[in-house]
Amino acid sequence: MKLTKRNHYNPCLWTAFWNRDYYEAVLRGTSDDLTARDQDVYTLNVRADSIYSTNVNNVHFEKNFGVAKITQEAAKKFCKRHYPDQYEQFCRESKAAAYPVYIDFEQILEALEKTPAYQILPTVIKRQAIISAEEKAFLADFVFLQWLRNHATMNLMLESNADLGIDKFDFFITLKNWLSDPDASYSPIACIGLSLWTLYRTDKETFPLTDSPVLVNPDSIMIALSPKLLLEISPKIRSTDAIWKTKDHLDEAKLTEFRQRTIKNTFREIIFGDRETLEQWQSTQEFRQRVDAVKSKKYKRLTAEKTKNELWLINTLGNY
Q1: What are 285-305's pLDDT values in tens digits?
Q2: CA neighbor of 197 nearest in space, from 226, 239, 227
Q3: How far apart (Å, rounded) are the C-alpha atoms in residues 121 and 205?
Q4: Is pLDDT of 179 > 90?
């Protein structure tokens, strides 16, 4: 089996929409001959403090993140921890097995991207609207999964498990089983879906996309669904599953808030369809502060603290 070297936390099927030609081809229904991962975008890289053109296959990924090695001793430890009654039998049967073996988490990410949570995205982006409670439910699932799989959240969970002596493959198997159980994530997803939603839509490309696009604070969750569509969720305001607001106007204060929260949530890069917008963002005070934070020795600690706060907020959503 060929192991995946790049695991995209934002899938190319989504980031390709930040290429204007691809976006318009989808609107016209002429995108069948286009490959999503080949679409070019402009990238504002925080650590390099530079803007350059690349394709979406080269951004928003973690190298070798999803590959986990399993040694014979690690496999025995896993069996003893999860299936103690089968441990002796496993030890006998595994003597003839060829170790090490590897698992590739990319298969799980690909499976997620085939679910309605991701497959609804092109439809909503093309239409610039939600038309049913079912679509809202699928998007609620998408928001939660995108938060879960982002660079900071996944790395913090891996590091936390490593500190407890839990192997990487053990974490991946546990996460796979957890994702397979609809009851496990019901509470936060239901709360996201039953909160007040506001869709801001624009006529032109307005919303760049960061590598960690689910912007979480105690009062709202923001995510750019496309360059022309911004979703804001207010978890403290309950709504019914069939109600959401759509606004065709975005005031300057809301756009400034989105820009500031996006930059503060960026760990590597921000993508967009034109260079000029990213140049404007690069010149802001908040971006200069983010560059300093990323380059500082405190970056890893600040990232962990921020992600822990988000973990607490997501876990307590169901209690609102």
Answers
A1: 999 999 998 888 666 666 666
A2: 239
A3: 17
A4: no
* Per-residue b or e along 205-243, where b marks 16 or more CB atoms closer than 10 Å to that residue's CB: bbbbbbbbbbbbeeebbbbbbbbbbbbbbebeeebeeee
Lowest mean pLDDT among 56-65, 191-200, 306-315: 306-315
Check if the beta carbon of residue 56 is closer than 8 Å to that of residue 13: no
Give the SS3 label for residue 149. Answer: coil
Contact 14, 7 (CB under 8 A): no
Burial of 135 (0-12, 13-18, 19+ CB in 10 A): middle
Q: How many residues does the chain have?
A: 320
CB contact at 8 A, 243 and 220? no
3-state helix, strand, coil in the chain (%, to 5): 50, 20, 30
Q: Which residue has the tokens 């530079």?
A: 50
pLDDT score of 320? 43
Residue 314 in this model has a pLDDT that exceeds 90:
no
- Give the residue among 54, 62, 68 at the shortest CA–CA distance from 7: 62
pTM score: 0.89
